[in-house]
């Protein structure tokens, strides 16, 4: 097993860690879903986490912003340790945006209202300022014309782009994506991946759970392969796809890369 704790950008220079995960473990009852996982992610680094279903990928990134609680080990985000206190949780969630498999939009609110809700309630922004920020991010995801529609009037790809814009409206330093294209029809996947590709170009720290290996090849500084709740291999995309070191990884990539 290879547990990699590299704080290195794509250019190979040292960088401050945005996320530090040290030997965390987690159980659901008697079932262990994370087993002694350690992973450091540098500021500005783009990391793709992949692996078979049930390997702990989604649980790992949900632990980063406290949606799931780990029972052992430590997690720190931008030097704030996730210690169970509400203050630490609030600080970390202010730094971290998250996009889920399902869009999680409020169906009774317009797109614009979905985007302004958090800035107005959490950051106490006036409505005009919140709407200005919302429109800025709707333009970034290329759907400003949808601002006054309701989510169910949009395609799945458009709804996921709204979800990305909503996460960006809190102006996070880190973005987490939990299989953001898995609920989409094939023809809608590209439009969401294109938006994520543009976002990666801004230098934002990104952690992406996905089976979209083309995206990983293009965007990732590092690919982390998980199985059975552990990190099995970690490395640059060309190395981990071209020459995986374990039979578990070779079997997985042989299956996903042939499609």
Detail the topology: elements first, then pairings:
Elements: E1 17-28, E2 31-42, E3 46-50, H1 57-64, E4 72-77, E5 80-81, H2 86-95, E6 96-99, H3 111-121, H4 127-140, H5 156-168, E7 174-178, H6 186-200, E8 205-209, H7 213-219, E9 222-227, E10 230-235, H8 237-242, H9 247-257
Parallel strand pairs: 3-8, 3-9, 6-7, 7-8
Antiparallel strand pairs: 1-2, 1-4, 4-5, 9-10
Helix pairs in contact: 3-4, 3-5, 4-5, 5-6
Structure description:
The protein is α/β, with parallel strands linked by helices and 259 residues long. 37% of the residues lie in helices and 24% in strands. It is built from nine helices and ten strands. The chain has helices spanning 57-64, 86-95, 111-121, 127-140, 156-168, 186-200, 213-219, 237-242, 247-257; strands spanning 17-28, 31-42, 46-50, 72-77, 80-81, 96-99, 174-178, 205-209, 222-227, 230-235. The strands form two sheets. It has a six-stranded mixed β-sheet with strand order 6-7-8-3-9-10, sandwiched between helices. Strands 2-1-4-5 form a four-stranded antiparallel β-sheet, covered by helices on one side. A hairpin with a 2-residue loop joins strand 1 (17-28) and strand 2. Helix 3 (111-121) crosses helix 4 (127-140), helix 4 (127-140) packs across helix 5 (156-168) and helix 5 (156-168) packs parallel to helix 6. It is globular. The chain starts with 16 loop residues before the first strand and ends with a helix. Mean pLDDT is 91; it is low at 1-14.
């Amino acid at each position: 097993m290879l547990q990699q704790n590299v704080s290195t950008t794509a250019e190979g220079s040292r960088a401050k860690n945005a996320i530090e995960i040290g030997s965390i473990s987690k159980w659901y009852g008697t079932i262990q879903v994370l087993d002694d996982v350690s992973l450091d992610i540098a500021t500005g680094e783009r990391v793709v986490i992949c692996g078979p279903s049930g390997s702990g990928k989604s649980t790992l990134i949900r632990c980063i912003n406290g949606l799931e609680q780990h029972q052992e080990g430590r997690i720190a985000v931008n030097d704030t340790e996730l210690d169970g206190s509400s203050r630490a949780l609030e600080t970390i969630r202010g730094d971290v945006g998250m996009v889920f498999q399902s869009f999680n939009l409020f169906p009774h609110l317009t797109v614009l209202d979905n985007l302004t809700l958090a800035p107005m309630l959490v950051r106490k922004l006036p409505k005009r300022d919140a709407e200005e920020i919302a429109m800025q991010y709707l333009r970034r995801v290329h759907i400003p014309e949808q601002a006054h529609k309701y989510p169910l009037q949009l395609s799945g790809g458009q709804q996921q782009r709204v979800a990305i814009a909503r996460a960006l409206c809190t102006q996070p330093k880190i973005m987490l994506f939990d299989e953001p294209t898995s609920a989409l029809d094939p023809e809608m996947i590209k439009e969401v991946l294109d938006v994520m590709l543009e976002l990666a170009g801004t230098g934002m720290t990104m952690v992406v759970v996905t089976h979209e290996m083309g995206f990983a090849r293009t965007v990732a500084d590092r690919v982390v392969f998980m199985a059975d709740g552990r990190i099995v291999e970690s490395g640059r995309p060309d190395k981990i796809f071209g020459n995986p070191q374990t039979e578990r990884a070779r079997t997985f990539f042989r299956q996903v890369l042939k499609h």
